[in-house]
Write a structure and sequence with these properties.
The complex is a heterodimer of chains A (115) and B (116).
Chain A: E1 5-7, E2 10-13, E3 19-24, E4 31-37, E5 43-50, E6 65-69, E7 75-79, E8 88-95, E9 105-106, E10 110-114
Parallel strand pairs in A: 2-10
Antiparallel strand pairs in A: 1-3, 3-7, 4-5, 4-8, 6-7, 8-9, 8-10
Chain B: E1 3-6, E2 11-14, E3 19-21, E4 23-26, E5 32-38, E6 44-50, E7 56-59, E8 62-65, E9 75-77, E10 86-93, E11 104-106, E12 110-115
Parallel strand pairs in B: 2-12
Antiparallel strand pairs in B: 1-4, 3-9, 5-6, 5-10, 7-8, 8-9, 10-11, 10-12
The chains are: A mainly beta (115), B mainly beta (116).
Chain lengths: 115, 116
């Protein structure tokens, strides 16, 4: 079946512009996650959605970052007034449930470059 | 705070050599432990996992044992192949009530290169 998809695959933007990144999770997965991977570093948690519960936003680095999810479907991550330090690969993952040790399936990522 | 410390790389081995990548974690309670792998040009994928103390996760010849007493989850393989060249990430998922509940906390990754 289809895996997690993300768009765009690459995004180059000027400093100060807003960007929107999209994630389509695996159908039926109730949990959705956003992570950020800076060059040569591990993945950094950003935000986690579980069903209709309030999202865990504890990883968002500043109020320029926000994310939404429509039901148990598509999610968008928005970065306002982008800065050069926002340059990274943004990864989305989904899992059947957020609790327990269910596997998280990762998308291919969106590579964001802020010039 | 909660964290994962991984053996720094890069690691370079000859084919058929023994591999160990060390991983220790700091977390409250009883987290689930994972190794993820990222092959060149591919997305991140689960390699193996263990959900309770003394469990051994295994896949594709790789093994890791959940050691609660040493808070470790070292990755091992007895005989590596060129096709094992990839970046390996250790991660944990906190249990209910912990600050890392629901989400994965990752180490910084270890680059492995295997030469013929």
């Amino acid at each position: 079946g289809a895996g997690v998809s993300q768009s765009p695959s690459n995004k180059v933007t000027e400093k100060g512009k807003d960007v929107e990144l999209r994630c389509d999770p695996i159908s039926g997965h109730t949990a959705l996650y956003w992570y950020r991977q800076r060059l040569g570093q591990g993945l950094e948690f950003l935000i986690y959605f579980q069903g209709n519960s309030a999202p865990d936003k504890s990883g968002l680095p500043s109020d320029r970052f926000s994310a939404e999810r429509t039901g148990e479907s598509v999610s968008t991550l928005t970065i306002q007034r982008t800065q050069q330090e926002d340059s990274a690969v943004y990864l989305c993952a989904s899992s059947l449930r957020g609790t327990g040790a269910y596997e998280q399936y990762f998308g291919p990522g969106t590579r964001l470059t802020v010039t | 705070g909660d964290s994962v410390t991984q053996m720094e790389g890069p690691v370079t081995l000859s084919e058929e050599a023994f591999l160990t990548i060390n991983c220790t974690y700091t977390a409250t309670g009883y987290p689930s432990l994972f190794w993820y792998v990222q092959y060149p040009g591919e997305g991140l994928q689960l390699l193996l996992k263990a959900t309770k103390a003394d469990d051994k996760g295994s896949n594709k010849g790789f093994e890791a044992t959940y050691r609660k007493e040493t808070t470790s989850f070292h990755l091992e393989k007895g005989s590596v192949q060129v096709s094992d060249s990839a970046v390996y990430f250790c991660a944990f998922k906190g249990d209910a009530g912990g600050t890392s509940y629901g989400k994965l906390t990752f180490g910084q990754g270890t680059i492995l290169t295997v030469h013929p």
